[in-house]
Amino acid sequence: MGKNKLRENPYNMRMMFVETLAKTTVDAGREWLRRAGVPQDRAGHFSTGLIPICPLQQEHVPAIQAHMLSLGGHDRYLRFGFAATDEQIKRYVDELNFERDEIYGIFNRHLDIVAMAHLAILKETGRDSMAEFGVSVQAYARGRGYGGRLFERAVMHARNEQISLLYIHALSENAPMLRIAKSAGATLERDGSETEAYLRLPERDLDSRVTELVADQFAKANYSIKEDAIRFWSFLANVQEIRDGVRAGRHQAAE
Ligand SMILES: CC(C)(COP(=O)(O)OP(=O)(O)OC[C@H]1O[C@@H](n2cnc3c(N)ncnc32)[C@H](O)[C@@H]1OP(=O)(O)O)[C@@H](O)C(=O)NCCC(=O)NCCS
Asked: What is the per-residue pLDDT across 192-212, written as a single tens digit (0 to 9) for each?
C-alpha cells in the first residue's frame, strides 16, 4: 500500500475524531457554564479553537532553541528589541525558568515548534502580580492566527494565576503584535520607535479555569498523536529497510 494512501485513511480519520471530540467537549462545557449562569465574557472566550497549544517543559529545550535560532535577523530584532546573536539566543533559552514562567508551543506534525510564547511572571509580596508576554511565529506560518491564539492562551493562564497586569514591549513598527494587544483592549504607549502595551486582566472565574484544563488536555492528546504518528512512520521505514535487505539477499543468492 502506498505511503500516501495510508496517510489519507486512518490518520485523517483519527484527527477528525479528535478534533470533533475536542470541539464538542469545549462547546458542551461552555453551554454547561452558560446554563449555570456563568457570564461568557470576551476575555475568557475559548477562541484558541482547534489550535493545540502545549505548555512546554525542560524536555522541549532543543525544540525551543531550534525555533528561536531559525528566526531571521529582523525577526530577532522584533522579538527582543535587538538583533540577538546565536549566542544570546542560546543563553536566553538556557535561562528559561519553567517553574516560574509559562512557555507555550504550537507544533507541526514533525514536532518542530512553529510558534511559541513566553509569559514571564513577576510575583512580589505586597504588590500586584505582573507578567510580560513575548511571542514568535515562524515566517511561513504567520497570518494564521497563531500569534493571537498564543496571546489568548497566555491571558487565560495569567488570569488563573491571579495576575492583574500583562505587559508587552514591542517596536512601534510591529503592526501585527500591536494589533493583537490592541484587539484585546490593551493601552498602548508609544515612545518613538518603541511601544509599551498594558492589559489589565479580569479576575479568574470558573470559565477561565475549566477552559484552561480542557485546552491543556486537548493539546496533550494532540501531541501524543503526533508522537505516535512519528513512531509509526519510523517503524514502517524500518520494516521497509529490512524487506529491502531480505530482497537484496535473495537476489544475490539467486545469482
Ligand atoms: C508578531 C507575530 C508573533 C504575529 O504572529 P501571527 O501568527 O502572524 O499573528 P496573527 O496571525 O495572530 O495576526 C495577528 C493580527 O495581526 C494582523 N496582522 C497580520 N499581519 C499584519 C500586518 N502586516 N499589518 C497589520 N496587521 C497585521 C492580523 O490580521 C491579526 O489581526 P486580526 O486578528 O484582527 O485579524 C509574528 O509576526 C512574529 O513572530 N514576528 C516576529 C517576532 C515578534 O515580532 N514578536 C513580537 C514581539 S514580542
From this structure: 999 999 999 999 999 899 889
Instruction: List Cβ neighbours of 201 (8 Å cut-off, separation of 6 or more).
Output: 43, 155, 158, 159, 163, 164, 165, 166
Spatial CB neighbours of 209, under 8 Å, sequence gap ≥ 6: 160
Q: Which domains are present in the chain?
A: 2-254 (3.40.630.30)
**Is the model more confident about 199 or about 125?**
199
Ligand 1 pocket, Cβ-based, cut-off 6 angstroms: 75, 78-79, 134-137, 142-148, 170, 174-177, 179-180, 183
DSSP readout, 123-139? --TTS--EEEEEEEE-G
Ligand 1, atom 16: closest residue by C-alpha: 176
pLDDT(10) > 70: no
* Residue located nearest, by CA, to atom 43 of ligand 1: 79
Cα 175 to ligand 1 centre (Å) = 7
Q: Please provide residue 116's backbone torsions phi and psi, each rounded to the nearest 5 degrees.
A: -145, 155
* Nearest Cα to Cα of residue 113 among 7, 226, 239: 226
CA–centroid distance, 92 to ligand 1, in Å, is 23
Q: Which of 142, 168, 196 is the pocket-test mutation for ligand 1 (most atoms within 8 Å of CB)?
A: 142
Instruction: Tell me 112's DSSP state.
Output: -
What percentage of residues in the chain have a pLDDT greater than 70? 80
Neighbours of 33 (CB within 10 A): 18
The residue type of 234 is S
